[in-house]
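Review form for a predicted model. The reviewer records the input and the model, then writes brief findings.
Reviewer: anonymous (R2)
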Amino acid sequence: MEIIIIGLYIIVFIYSVILHEVAHGWVANRFGDDTAKISGRLTLNPIPHIDVFGSIVLPVLLYIGTGFTFGYAKPVPVNPFRLQGGTKSYRWVTLAGILTNFSLAIIAGIVLRLVNQTLFFGPENLGVIFFQLIFVINLVLAVFNAMPFPGFDGYNFLMTFGWFSNAVRQTPLANPLFMAKYGLFVSLMILILIWPFVGHIIGVVINFFAATLGI
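Model under review:
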């Protein structure tokens, strides 16, 4: 049973991350930038999306160290200059992944509530476990990606506002060479340092959605 649950966890995690990335490319394509489509990234085939560190190594390390897991797929290529609507369109592109994760969590929560009210399956039922995993994993991914750290969707969203981008230009984060070498490391170090706070936010968000959906 435990092996089956681990398998379900891996499947849900991988496809939640993939759908997150596909959402970025799909919204960009809707606004006129077909870079992701041309690159073959608007697919549910996991192979083009998997990043060795972000999809495998990082989730394992975080799970071992914190009990939570987070990861990412290869970022879907987006060319903001090809988007019709400029900055406003790019904001929707940056939010697409987070909104997708929230949507998946809400759908899973609704299914769980209906199942609890009509079929009365126990918590050990694999179907119940499957949708519980979708609910929790996607809320965790949404919260993580909303963090305002370099490389995260929250950071990319805030960079579309002048006050934030101007502030960033006064720091080493504005240096492309610095970001290429240390950007991910900086974000991970910040994440580790404020982990108790991030963990608290995750707990609050999960409890809020669970209470709201009645599960």
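Findings: DSSP finds nine helices and no strands in the chain.
Further findings: The chain has a mean pLDDT of 88.
Recommendation: see findings above.
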